[in-house]
Amino acid sequence: MTDFDVLIIGGGAAGFYGAIHIASSNPELKIAILEKSGQVLSKVKISGGGRCNVTNAIHEPLELAKNYPRGQQELLGPFHRHTSNDTVAFFEKHGIPLKTEPDGRIFPVSNSSQTIISLFMKEIDALGVILLMKTPVTDLAPITSRPPVTSGWKVQTTEKTYTAGKVLLATGSSIKMWNVLRKLDYRVEPAVPSLFTFNIKDARINGLQGVSTPARVEILTEKFQSRAGTLNLGSRRNKGDSLIAEGPLLITHWGMSGPAILKLSAWGAIALNACNYQFTIRINWLPHFHMDAVLKHLKEVKEVESRKTVLRTNAVEIPRRLWINLVLASDIPRDMIWGDLTKKQMEQLANQLTRTEFRVDGKSTYKDEFVTAGGVDLKEVNFKTFESRRHANLYFAGEILNVDAVTGGFNFQNAWTGAYLAAMAIAG
Questions:
Q1: If we measure between CA atoms, which residue out of 395, 378, 389 comes closest to residue 8?
Q2: pLDDT tens figures, 113-159
Q3: Rounded distance, CA 154 to CA 139, Å?
Q4: Which residue among 169, 255, 277, 382 is the one 20 to 30 A from 211 at the CA level?
């Protein structure tokens, strides 16, 4: 006789969402969540700067899947069964009104992650789900009725051994759990950071902290080993070996951030780790124009504004402080007028505006939201049910799998979708 019908290992977003759906679908099941620490839902708490970016307004499965550097193809089918619209419906059904911001991110109207945490805690209590805190799992072993049939699981913790008919692993990027799975012959991809900002020290961005502007950013490095595809805001793989993204770029105290940079960090995660985060980027501050078109425009400005100072005449639509820095970087003196610009200076300015290069020397974690590429190899999982292909009655959801996304609520959507489909299979 088993201790539990279902054990959920991991008290995060996927674990709670799965527990609620299992218990709601089959109230007769005895369910417990095992959480290694003294705190649950820690990523939910810090998501979106403490506001909890629960999902994204993109709901069409194909478009939604494009936001996943790893897992894009595998999640397409699951998103047809549980997409962001279903996530919104779940929270609103449980009394949590949501709002959509202009960039597509969806938050609770309360602007507080505690709203989501309180809902989850209230629901598992009402549904009779047992929460066992400070219960780290140290080992996992199948119970076999007749090999290779797995009839249940032994779950070893630091204090005791539990048994369960079915187990849902929702432990996130837990190296310890990945090592447990490796002992069971699972293929696990090593973890590398997936969402990070670029550390850059360069006079051209000195004093520009807080400046945000649209840009086209290209990573220039040797062969990329990561797989990329089309992203929102124009991120894509070039015909060569570079990765390109278009979107808002934010200049920070340590370098560069913003959607364009974060998307590149996700799609280039494996390759950038391999080069130890030492690489070069090329930026077009006027993403809709090529250098030749900009040079032609500057020549027209020279004709019209010949007596005006170049530094004081912002000839293109970029922030004024950025314009000043790029003019100075083009070897144009502060007091030079347009009429005195040489051909070489004009070309240098056009180049700084459309093809300026920066050396990246390291990375920084994006806010407090640490996301990794890596995890259980996707070939090990049946994505119709999120059940293991290697062992029956073992399921996965969330970041334990080698799935990760760009910023904007997409990582949570992976957790909700996987947990829901696993729950439906577990509940029977």
A1: 395
A2: 999 999 999 999 999 999 999 999 999 999 987 766 778 999 999 99
A3: 8
A4: 277
Plot region of 210 (φ>0 → left; ψ -120 to 50 → alpha; else → beta) = left
Q: Is the whole model's pTM more than 0.70, yes or no?
A: yes
- Please write the tens of the pLDDT for every residue from 313-366: 999 999 999 999 999 999 999 999 999 999 999 999 999 999 999 999 999 987
Q: For residues 359 and 219, is the Cβ–Cβ distance under 8 A?
A: no
Residue type for position 306: S
Give the residue among 173, 210, 190, 196 at the shortest CA–CA distance from 277.
196
Residue 360: what residue type? V
CA distances from 239 to 145, 219, 229, 244, 428 (A): 54, 13, 12, 10, 47
Nearest Cα to Cα of residue 144 among 393, 428, 422, 425: 393
The residue with tokens 């799609």 is: 267
How far is the C-alpha of 205 from the C-alpha of 198, rounded, in Å? 13
